[in-house]
Design brief:
Blueprint lengths: L9 H17 L6 H4 L2 H4 L1 H15 L11 H22 L6 H24 L5
Length: 126
């Protein structure tokens, strides 16, 4: 089976670095609507899914250490979209935005393609 690195995954590390760079170095100085709005939303799946899957694995809710599947990505994408864009605005002072959910999905698609390529390229481990 090809093993997923969870929080050592290169896409996770890159996405987290891009998130931090955009949040603290770029957004305060750039007035691009995309960089101020949806860029970090695109990073939701590659930043948040690996530690969640690691936790699920440790709790016995995930049976294997394989790369994230399309089903896992879609499930978390739907749950987080509903939580952040539908439920969140009712309990917090935030605005639900369909474009945020579109950005989550775009980032999830890119992550899925990346992880599929990594799964095919990774050496088999016993």
């Amino acid at each position: 089976m090809k093993r997923f690195g969870y929080c050592r995954d290169p896409l996770f590390l890159l996405a987290c670095a891009l998130y931090a760079l955009n949040r603290w170095a770029v957004k305060p100085h750039v007035h691009s609507p995309f960089l101020r709005g949806q860029f970090n939303d695109c990073l939701l799946i590659p930043c948040a899914l690996p530690p969640v899957l690691w936790l699920q694995r440790r709790l016995g809710l995930r049976r294997e250490d394989g790369f994230p599947t399309g089903q896992e990505i879609i499930f978390h994408l739907v749950v987080w979209s509903v939580l952040f864009e539908v439920i969140g605005p009712h309990i917090m002072n935030v605005t639900g935005d369909i474009w945020d959910a579109v950005a989550y999905a775009a980032g999830g698609l890119v992550a899925w393609i990346w992880w599929r390529m990594q799964a095919k390229a990774a050496p088999h481990r016993a």
